[in-house]
From TrEMBL:
Pfam families: DUF5682. InterPro entries: DUF5682 (IPR043737), LolB (IPR050458). It comes from Streptomyces gottesmaniae. This is DUF5682 family protein. Residues 776-800 have a biased composition (Basic and acidic residues).
Amino acid sequence: MGEVRARGGGPLLLGVRHHGPGSARAVRAVLDVARPRVVLIEGPPEADGLIPLAADEDMRPPVALLAHAVDEPGRSSFWPFAEFSPEWVALRWALAHGVPARFIDLPAAHSLVRGSEEDADAEPGEPTSPPEEEPLRGDPLAALAEAAGYDDAERWWEDVVEHRGTGGDVFAPFTVLEEAMGALREAYGTGGRDRDLVREAYMRLQLRAAQKEFGDDGVVVVCGAWHVPALRQKRTVAADRALLKGLPKVRTDMTWVPWTNRRLARAGGYGAGIDSPGWYGHLFGAPDRPVERWLTKVAGLLREEDRIVSSAHVIEAVRLAETLAVMRGRPLPGLTETTDAVRAVMCDGSDVPLSLVRDRLVVGDVLGEVPESAPAVPLQRDLTRLQRRLRLKPEALERELELDLRKENDAERSRLLHRLRLLGVAWGEPTTSRGSTGTFRETWRLRWEPELSVRVAEAGVWGTTVLAATTAKAEADAVTAGSLADITGLAERCLLAELPDALPVVMRVLADRAALDADVGHLAQALPALVRSLRYGDVRATDTRALAEVAAGLAERVFVGLPPACAALDAEAAQETRRHVDAVHGAVGLLGDTVPGQQAARDDGLRPRWHSVLHVLSVRDTVPGVLRGRAVRLLLDDGALAQDEAARLMGLVLSPGTAPADAAAWIEGFVGGGSGGGMLLVHDERLLGLVDAWLTGVPGDAFTDVLPLLRRTFSAYEPGVRRTLGELVRRGPGRRPSAPAGGAGIPGFADELDIDRADAVLPVLRLLLGLDDDRDSTRGDHADGENADRENAEQERTDDNDLVGVGR
């Protein structure tokens, strides 16, 4: 059996690369030959009771062992296993042959107690960020690859291990790897991994105990190749126990959780993050001709994306990959060669479809599964039950979910996702809907990450069900909220999540905090979220009357306190207050429309009161120009200010007696902020003329001061609006251009309708409006018909002119 067994007999030590398919095949071959009486595996011994679950038919890798501190679930670690992981293969072999299997690494109770904050973020076996002068702290195989003349450890490993068959001496790979690791450890010691000394001491103690129970020749150890020389080392029991004496520990729980290929691709899980888990899974599962089978998979994926890929492409790609391997001196084509062949033959040299191949195949969107009998916190069990009932299966692939809240199942899905967000389990993120923007629709972007299992375990301290846990956490968050806006935001989330028991507590805290908070900025920040919450009563059948009373009270306090708060503000504070004014204006507009019975209050009370506040702001000299201009604009938009009066106020502020900087700020408030101010100037050339006349009269020494403000204002307009304003200014506001000879006037500014330009948009308008387009879309085709078709052509012209009017 070579050097894998100690001279004079002893346990078999199989040094592997974690998540290496070549190592997995070699381990299975050795186990089939050696037939041990016990299999010892690098891993946390607390998981020994979970080993039988690996044989469950519902257990599908990738999966991971999750250990977390009972009193602090956020302190956790994972031990991932893929189908091609040597440890997983050893577990499955032991279960299939009725052989005991045990984990022998340092217990999680010790490994979860970190000596530094840096170690707290690392997974067991995962090295921390190393200094550049210590290359072995990253991956010992990188040093071997460099010694062999490779600049890529992945390529070296493929050449010497992955591309080897299982024929011949099955022990040879482990013998060679042990010798190489022994040389590395003689040269570099622990390679900066001092914690490994403690782990290896514990593993030696467990190995000795197994030898006493099963005999020297009945034990096989499957562990990282780096540890094999240390396990072979002759150390006394007393010395090993001395290293372990006094180690701190915490009370832990452990279970199986689903894992993903994407998470395997990160540098974690025994410190052996791999770039290509999908490729490695293919190498492990392909019975023969792996390159041909891989390129066939790639061709199938590209065909699904409507790319033209034939069998001839596959044949040519195989030939090219084999040729590249020969030219590069490799025994077989690897991932590099197959990728180059796919790019050249199937992707026409483009990296765009190649990125799809990498995402879907080289990495993959595989999400493992664990059986229901696996231990789990009660909250996880309730979540699993809800996911199954609502047909909302966790998936590793990101997807969008459209919900119609008028449907009961979709409404329950929405409530679940909102409750999980309140618990800090960000399975779904709300996004902008591409369809209706009504409050009865929601769009979510879903992706299940393995770390969410930890978040669920953390949230388990709040309750045993999703509803109970979310209610308890919302009540606690209300009490500890830092600002009034935080509480109103929490009230909004409670309505979205439908937490009837938590909402009264949140409302009581909100009322108490609002009564004590005299800061108008805080009140203005809190009001919009509160008013948005009122809209949910219609769709979600939630009683929001108490919320409406609090919102109306906040609005009244904002009305009273806003004018004094706007006096003597600097430029930065004025911009912040302007955002508050915009938010309050939108909230007042919604407040009367959201709750039945509030329309009269809006028409007879809140809306007029708000308009009176804006009138005060618009004429008070102590208010910054940006706020005065904004108040005039909001009044104009609401029809509470005549255009003549708005023009008069603009004329006053743009008079020579006003400082240029203050006038520029007024203009920014009036037509800036991306609120349609550009179109206002386009359609009201009188206002544009006032701005133009003021700007041309600004003294040269003051022009450089106002230029940044004006540039910020006008740069926010869309390109078409800026172009139109430029044309209007060029010809002079208020003057119509005269058509030059030949009828070639300025495009878009002729006195009459430009029929040819209007005809160009008719096909698009017909498509948008869903009109019958059986007839030809161009007027010329009708004019070429017989006399009997002239009436139809004339009718067509009339309809098209109507469409042009709609488009304008």
